[in-house]
Amino acid sequence: MDLATQPVTEKNRDAYYWRLLATAASFALFGLGGLCLRLLVFPLLACLPGDALVHRRRARQTVSRLFWFFVRFMARTGVLTYDIQGAERLGRPGQMIIANHPSLIDVVFLIGLVRQANCVVKKSLWENPFTRGPLRRTEYISNDGSMDMLDAAAESLHNGQTLIIFPEGTRTQPGQAPAFHRGAASIALRGAKIVTPVIIKVNPTTLTKAEPWYRIPRRRVHFSFRVGADIDPQTFAAQGPAPQASRKLNDYLHDYFIKELAEDERFEQP
């Protein structure tokens, strides 16, 4: 798998209108792809033999491959460049992947990288006609904040799935540090064999919250993904009752990401 493209050069900064056109084409492709999955691909896959687990694996494999195709399309058309360090350590049974969330397409990258991953996704995506079909077929988990969501996420980890989660619950505000909710730490303590942080940096920022797709930066965007060292959640589980352990793990993860991101970024502390 090709995990890196060429770094940004001065020449790349000039193709603003081409990148705007390519960005529009990328969003159109994503929307049409979602409809095709719902109306054509998944109905055909449902006709193939196999039990519920086999059908789920086919669905996740299909979405993962198409997401990676979408990433490569954006890279080939000049919308973005990227580099990924440590991807070979993603996708282990019972692994919980925790990432910050600076851009709309972070989840596309991670699901594209991890072929059979489960993922906690925004509740609103289940109501979107372009995404609700694939979400149901892949059995991703709706982030509705309920105890059922926490139970489903922990159970998926107990069953040996890899789970991707963004503890912020929404995209990071540009110029501010990420703020983590404790739900991810609670899930990790209840079900994860190992927690693996993924630090995501986007330069310049793009597709942040409430930012329309057509407001592209003056130069090509570069995405950087770095897989950090594994964290054993049981180290925190032994430090007290569940609420206290959850708070300590959440604080540790928050401080960890703040430190890693601050290496070459400045944040306005809340």
From TrEMBL:
Pathway(s) of this molecule: Lipid metabolism
Signal peptide start and end residues: none
Ranges for domain Phospholipid/glycerol acyltransferase: 95-203
Keywords: Acyltransferase, Membrane, Transferase, Transmembrane, Transmembrane helix
GO MF annotation: an example: 1-acylglycerol-3-phosphate O-acyltransferase activity
InterPro entries: Plipid/glycerol_acylTrfase
Transmembrane segments: 20-45
GO BP, one annotated term: phosphatidic acid biosynthetic process
Protein name in UniProt: 1-acyl-sn-glycerol-3-phosphate acyltransferase
